[in-house]
Amino acid sequence: MANPVLEIKNLRTSFNIKGNYYAAVDDVSLTVHENEVVAIVGESGCGKSALALSIMGLHNLKTTKLEGQVNFKSQNLLSLSASKLNKIRGKDLGMIFQDPMTALNPLATIGRQIEEPMDYHMKLSSAAKKKRTLELLRRVGIKNEQRIYSQYPHELSGGMRQRVVIAIALACDPVLLIADEPTTALDVTIQAQIMDLMKELQNQIKSGIILITHDLGVVAEMADRVAVMYAGEVVEIAEVRELFMNPLHPYTRSLLNSIPSNMEDKKALHVIEGIVPSIQKLDRTGCRFAPRVAWVPEHEHEESPTLHEVEPGHFVRCTCYKNFHFPEEKVGDESYVTTKS
Amino acid sequence: MLKFIIRRMLIMIPQLILLSLIIFVLAKAMPGDAVTGAFVSNPNATPEQMEKIRESFGLNDPWYVQYGHWIGKAVQGDFGMSFVHKQPVTHLLESRVANTLLLAAVTMIVTYIISIPLGIIAGRWTDTWADKIIVTYNYFAFATPLFVFALLMLFLFSFILGWFPSGGSVDIRIETGTWEYFVDKAKHLFLPVMSGALLATFGTIQYLRNDIIDTKLKDFVKTARSKGVPEGKVYTRHILRNSLLPIAAFLGLEITGLIGGSIFIESIFSYPGLGQLFIQSIGTRDFTVVTALVMISGTAVVVGTMLSDIILSIVDPRIRID
Do B230 and A120 touch (CB under 8 A)? Predict the structure, then answer.
């Protein structure tokens, strides 16, 4: 296996809510290797974005507590001073944000915004910066780069802006890209274009990518490995093929079962009962998914669930996966095993 | 850009016409007229005599005739004769306009010098002791009536401590143009300017503070941080530029406030400016002077709004119209 670029060890990110700290990311460990796309999937509020912001050090430290380690280039990012972290952010770590409509400064030209990270991380003349910026714009698929260079964000469409956001992340050749739901705010046709662009870039730049998404289609297309998060924890982690072919955790299976399909003749869409618990009300002992699979007998769950390696590289939290079946499913019913394709 | 500025200036023409109409009609609607004002304390004037004077001044003509007459002269810089001072209004205003403009301009500059740094500190370091002190000061500034505060300043720094003169704009014995003249002028300006500026800061501080608190949570600030931009530069390059937009937008309003405030300030510090003249003229129903003064302050507001529009269009690409 290639060298690891990022090693997250027991990361816990807690937010201060009325004087108490509540963990939104709870004891997450994850490794990203060179040229590897690791997808993090889960519902809204499961802690995926909080995880991304923790890696980038973008949380407000007055109200956020970060514990554990985020090792990158043999340094723990969590213990770095702001100025040392600033030498890494934008250079080795690039971030692609969710909403291109708000991620760009409305008062600065596109050119300026792409050149800005170069100001701090590269010693280039302004002519060289401009040349590099125009090149980046072409690389993210913008054809009239000369014009776009001197335009402002409000003059561009959402898809174009997201290309610019990607160009900013790529400006200084990062070793690791963090893409926080890069297509969520775009409409479907543009989503496909941006995903194609991401895949193409991934082939060119060979950097590690953390792809945060709740779109399983995107995961299947791009990811090498997938971590499924629920209520701040990783509940299952596996190679992408393994995860889709052999999902084990009840949550993963529920997610896959909830995808509408035109291949099968299902009467109703599968719905996961209940809601994601808020981080204040979350019961932190026992299996966190238990309340949403109420039909599973209590003794099936572990008392303090840990990740079990069921296959090499395939980890599942808790023991409740072993005899898990959906209530409407007959034991041994092939159509429910998964979305085998 | 030039096209935008010219267009914006052309819009001022109808604004000013409308302004002059409203002012004229409102001034006409004031109870009494110049003749009443001039003879109010003169028991020897009979109503017949007063009526005769009215007729000779054209005060009995229909309002639109009077308006046409007035505006025709006004655009040539002639606002007529003051009924009370018996001299051309233009002549009466000449020296005072310069004094008031100086007072207003210095007050505005000092207001921004105080309020912009304070607003930035309060917005950037929210909920620190510095922020709390600034916000407290701000509420005091908001709640304190200008005339009370100005009197207090006058009492303390002029009457008790004797550091600054209590009135006037310059010592009459000092020769114009010398260094002493400049220093003395500054000394006379100090109290009126500080009285106005220390209270006028509240709007700017509050807007700037709130806008910075708002802007620093925006996504593009996260983008800037993710680029490795140092915190100080995140503020100067990204947050402040965005947060100063509302301040620029309020420039016109700020000017209006200054003009309103100058009436109190100039009366309290017996500063020979337009404000003082304004109060006197209303008391004596000096119609020509009042209309001229309101016209001047109204024009100042219209020009101020235009300035803030132009400044905004320079800073903010979204409202540039090409």
Answer: yes
The residues facing A309 across adjacent strands are A315
Q: Is the pLDDT of residue A169 over 80?
A: yes
Residue matched to tokens 């690891």: A4
Residues A48-69 have a mean pLDDT of: 88
Amino acid at A61: L
The torsion angles phi and psi of A297, rounded to 5 degrees, stand at -60, 150
Q: Give the whole-angstrom CA distance, residue A242 versus residue B116.
A: 59
The span from the CA of A99 to the CA of A182, in Å, is 7
Return the structure tokens found at A14.
Answer: 């807690």
Q: What is the DSSP string of A297-339?
A: -GGGS-SS--EEEEETTEEEESSTTTT---TTSPTT-HHHH--
Domains contained in chain A, CATH given: 4-223 (3.40.50.300), 247-337 (no CATH)
* Those residues with Cβ within 8 angstroms of residue A224's Cβ, 6 or more apart along the chain or in another chain: A36, A37, A38, A239, A240
Give residue-wise pLDDT tens across range A270-306.
788 888 888 888 878 888 888 888 888 888 888 888 8
**Helix, strand, coil % over all residues of chain B, rounded to 5:** 75, 0, 25
Distance of CA A240 to the CA centre of its chain: 14
Can you tell me which residue has the tokens 């301040």? B247
Q: Is the pLDDT of residue A8 over 70?
A: yes
B71 in helix, strand or coil?
helix
Q: Which of A168-172, A246-250, B197-201, B280-284 has the lowest mean pLDDT?
A: B280-284
pTM assigned to the model: 0.80
Residue A203, number of CB atoms within 10 A of its CB: 9
Residue in B closest to A93 by C-alpha: B226
Q: Which of B226, B229, B236 to mutate to test the interface with A (most CBs of A within 10 A)?
A: B226
Supply the pLDDT for residue B79: 79
Query: What is the distance between the alpha carbons of residues A82 and A90, in angstroms, rounded to a whole number?
Result: 13
ipTM (interface predicted TM): 0.85
H-helix segments, B125-169: 129-143, 146-153
Q: Which long-range contacts (CB under 8 A, 24 or more apart) does A324-327 make?
A: A324/A250, A324/A253, A324/A293, A324/A296, A324/A300, A326/A253, A326/A254, A326/A257, A326/A270, A327/A295
DSSP A52-96: HHHHHT-S-TTTEEEEEEEEETTEEGGGS-HHHHHHHBTTTEEEE
In the structure encoding, which two tokens stand for residue B295, read together?
């016209």
pLDDT score, position A341: 38
For residue A49, the tally of other CB atoms under 10 A from its CB is: 20
CATH number of B89-319: 1.10.3720.10
Q: Between chains, do B317 and A83 touch, taking CB under 8 Å as contact? A: no
Domain ranges within chain B, ordered by starting residue: 89-319
The pLDDT of residue A340: 40
Task: Judge whether A118 and A129 are in contact, CB under 8 Å.
Answer: yes
Q: Which two tokens stand for residue B212?
A: 């910075």
- To the nearest whole Å, the CA of A49 is away from the closest chain B CA by 13
| Cβ <8 Å between A116 and B316 | no
- Nearest CA to CA, how far is B240 from chain A (Å)? 11
Of B130, B155, B149, B147, nearest to B209 by C-alpha is: B130
Whether the per-residue pLDDT at A336 is higher than 60: the answer is no
> Which stretches of chain A are DSSP H helices?
48-56, 82-88, 110-121, 126-139, 145-149, 158-170, 188-205, 216-222, 240-245, 250-257, 334-337
Flag if B317 and A103 touch (Cβ within 8 Å).
no
Q: How confident is the model over B49-66, as a mean pLDDT? A: 78
| Set of chain A residues whose Cβ sits within 8 Å of the Cβ of B225 | 56-58, 89
